Write the structure tokens for this entry.
Amino acid sequence: MNFISTRGNAAGIGFVDTFLMGLAEDGGLMIPAELPVIDQDKMKQWERLSYQELTLEIFQLFTGDEIPREELKQLIDESYATFRSPVVTPLRKIRDDLHILELFHGPTFAFKDVALQFLGNLYSYVSQRQNKIINILGATSGDTGAAAIEGVRGKDGIRICILHPHEKVSKVQELQMTTVGNENVLNLAVKGNFDDCQRIIKELFADLEFKSRYHLRAINSINFVRILAQTVYYFYAYLQLVRQNPAAQISFSVPTGNFGNILSAFLAKRMGLPVHRLILATNENNILERFVREGVYMPDEFRSTHSPSMDIQVASNFERYLYYLVGEDSQQVSAMMKQFQEDGKVVLSAGLLAKVQSDFQAYGVKNDECLRMIESYSREADYLLDPHTACGVAAYESCGDKNTVTVVLATAHPAKFDESIRLVGIAQEFPADIQRLFDKPQHQQLVDNDKAEIAAQLERFFGTR
Ligand SMILES: N[C@@H](CCOP(=O)(O)O)C(=O)O
């Protein structure tokens, strides 16, 4: 397996180098030169595998012999030993037509743990094997930051700096990131929004001299390994459901901000997973919904919503999808991304729009609708949705196929978003691991929305060795 850039100027790169590279050196995103295709016989053999065993099978298709199977197995086993559920990502049946895939049983109560527990261990493994310094730089709208920090805090040879938008994450998200006392962690609270944080780190990654001077590594979904780790739960959920009902047609409704989670589903489908429909659920920051509806990708005014992790306008992984949309033509991707940089938008032809609409259905959930969904599912189904999952359910209710089975991805535990849950008059009890955060001191530095100021902070933090 080798990897290339969506913009065509990096090719023949192995798995470990792709992992370390993060953003491709030509500004594009790394993807496999060719996706493996899994046939139905193989899928049948996978039906009874545990989550860990399935992860091993899928990863081996991409790592080849770069990581010996036994070592890969150990990394995977260690990563999922931290989960509170023995099956890692349990499915809850709400009705015959609706299941919830609970992805929040990891240490920070969000789906990001599924990939980031593994990435933390993989960074450690590579650092030891290659005697490499690992300095991680990431941006978060709330969940990635906590999970990334949890994946590497206290680990030798690794330091991590996370940028989050000041006062635009939930209280629990802020506490999860900022109450970590380990010296290898730096939290910068940026006076801006998530798009500002993401833009700044991408500019720093694109400055190749700065990137190599400070050995910068990526933890966000610009890193292909994040996407790969997230494909596993689509296979796992699908295989569990078809074991019970071999004739079932299965769709997924995916709360989407940075387009990483739903891109993993899209790639799983391209690898042969027989997904019926992919529903893209957004909040009032509905750039992706407008893209699917109108074929125009153009940021709009930023809005703070009840689902802050999805308060994103410019979605990182959009470029990876574009690559497949235009028939794996990197020149066309480069031209479209140039158009986006110059005109602030990408406009599709009618033919491409039809293709997008056959890949996805999309729905943007209004703030009040999100709360209504939380209230009605709590009352009628006795299930407490977090606001992001509520967007996934609302999207299913609005455009799903009720004669088939839809799996809504539960991307976070409701306790992470108590501010929103309280608005519908529900008082929840916090899990002990969340409750204890309120008694801890916080460590973070407030910085301006300014690349030079942030670069100076990084020089101080990463430059001391
Ligand atoms: N919603 C994310 C934003 C960053 O996305 P990523 O998938 O690229 O890490 C968050 O919670 O931080």
Q: What stands out?
A: The pocket of LJ64HWYM is lined by residues 140-145, 220-221, 257-258, 260, 309, 316 (CB under 6 Å). The CA atoms of residues 1 and 34 lie 8 Å apart.
